[in-house]
Design a protein that fits this description.
alpha/beta, nine-stranded parallel sheet, globular
């Protein structure tokens, strides 16, 4: 009988949770600036096979809207910047919703309409709130407002101050428009979307910002990172500091009830010689560590949970600008992975040690307000991610991985659901186990969920796995192989 195949715990848990409930907060930006991309129907299959349950497109392409029908993937659509002035007219807005949105409902799960994308020109900003109001009224008249939210994503360039986060404020020249936008969002209970790219901040401030702080690689519980001197809140990564700076900026304008979400973030896997940090290893670390945190439903120090959309699904060969712009993709245009993100279940063929962090500095990490409007590519996540930017990984490729199952236990009875997963990787480390113990897994109608891993039984801390009956015993993490090779 063959020996048990070893597997990375976070990698397995990612597939496990996705198969039960999907990744609740993680979404992906589906850009289309390429002449060699998969057709929309194959894109849907790609997303579903990778358990990606949320996506955003940058228009209302009818082929894509039709392809997403009955896929159960939540979809955000976008009004192009050039249409804002036109849609400020209420009648034009009704016609737009009637022809661009309504025909695809409810089969296509359109959850949000973004009005424009990263607006900065004065004339476009002036049309933003009127267009938002007209689209909102059109949705209301058509009985769709309870299902679809209206908002607009902004680049981080709208921020005037962002360090420390408690000093967060918007630039003075957009402050009036922001007040109007926030009033609209507060009234309609819609979120504020910000596009935040720590990569661009690091590229311009590498001597002041440690790479580990940018890549979510600070050791758990360590004092690395920065502590806001006014709020006394500690930040172990730059993205959360950026988000909280936006929250403080919103509060400064008098709004306390608006949720902030990240519409775009990512890291390029390739760049020009002068694009510091743009490489496969850093991209894998950034997106892999971000994905780990998303699986725990982790929020920022100010906000309990954080919805994040990674940019983007594909490397897009028609994007203008430096090489990095065409290399943010999670996948190549033909659907093959740029590098393994932990969603597909297959390890990368090769794993190169990540680039070393920049020379340590005594100055604390900063969060400068940087305009990220130039970005338009995507993130990727490795099959196993190191906790440090200087550590390397070494996973194995197997031709015949084992089939694993989940056991749901209710009292003395247990039934095995033969939902099989193809898994690769190596034995879970103590760090992996610590991650598992922090994760709360909702189990819906089932009483108890038992997870199976290739290490000794480890009691799950009280309350980590929800139970419907107090009499049920503490659960353990184990690994059960349903089928072995002879």
């Amino acid at each position: 009988m063959a020996s048990l195949t070893r597997i990375s715990a976070p990698f397995f848990l990612l597939l496990l949770i996705c198969s039960i409930n999907g990744v609740s907060a993680l979404g992906i930006d589906y850009g289309q600036l390429g002449d060699n991309l998969l057709p929309p129907q194959q894109v849907v299959s790609l997303l579903r096979s990778n358990n990606i349950a949320k996506a955003r497109i940058f228009d209302t392409n009818p082929q894509i809207l039709s392809a997403f029908a009955n896929s159960d993937i939540q979809l955000i659509v976008t009004v192009e910047n050039t249409m804002l002035s036109q849609l400020s007219n209420p009648q034009a807005a009704i016609q737009w919703v009637t022809t661009r949105i309504k025909p695809y409902l409810p089969a296509t799960k359109i959850t949000d309409i973004m009005i424009g994308n990263e607006l900065d020109a004065t004339d476009l900003l002036a049309s933003l709130v009127p267009a938002m109001s007209s689209i909102q009224k059109a949705l209301s008249q058509l009985g769709l407002d309870s299902h679809i939210k209206v908002s607009s994503p902004f680049s981080y360039g709208v921020m005037g101050e962002s360090y420390p986060p408690s000093s967060g404020s918007f630039k003075s020249d957009v402050s009036d428009v922001m007040s109007q936008v926030l009033q609209f969002l507060s009234t309609t209970k819609s979120p504020f979307w910000i596009n935040a790219y720590p990569y661009f901040v690091y590229k311009g401030n590498s001597k002041e910002i440690p790479l580990e702080y940018v890549l979510f690689s600070s050791a758990a519980g360590s004092s690395s990172g920065m502590t806001d001197p006014s709020s006394n809140l500690h930040y172990d990564n730059l993205l959360y500091a950026q988000v909280d700076a936006v929250i403080y900026a919103i509060k400064a304008l008098g709004f306390d009830d608006i949720e902030v979400k990240v519409g775009e973030t990512g890291w390029p896997s390739k760049g020009d010689d002068d694009e510091l940090g743009a490489n496969l290893e850093n991209a894998a670390l950034y997106n892999g560590n971000l994905l780990k945190r998303q699986l725990t439903n982790e929020g920022t120090p100010l906000q309990p949970t954080l919805d994040v959309y990674v940019f983007a699904l594909f490397n897009e060969n028609k994007k203008a600008g430096p090489t990095s712009e065409r290399n943010f993709g999670l996948f190549q245009p033909d659907g093959t992975v740029v590098y393994n993100v932990g969603l597909t279940g297959y390890s990368s063929a090769t794993n190169v040690p990540p680039s070393p962090p920049s020379q340590s500095q005594t100055k604390p990490p900063i969060t400068p307000a940087t305009n990220s409007s130039g970005a338009s590519s995507s993130p990727s996540v490795p099959s196993e991610v190191s906790g440090s930017a200087t550590n390397s990984t070494n996973t194995s490729s197997l031709s015949s991985p084992p089939k694993l199952g989940l056991t749901y236990s209710s009292g003395a009875k247990a039934a095995t659901r033969r939902s099989l997963f193809l898994l690769l990787g190596k034995r879970g480390t103590s760090e992996d186990i610590e991650l598992l113990e922090r994760i709360s897994v909702p189990i819906c109608k089932l009483n108890v969920l038992k997870l199976f891993f290739p290490f000794p039984a480890i009691p799950v801390a009280s309350g980590k796995i929800r139970k419907e009956k107090e009499s049920q015993p503490r659960q353990f993490l184990r690994w059960e192989e349903l089928e072995r090779s002879s």
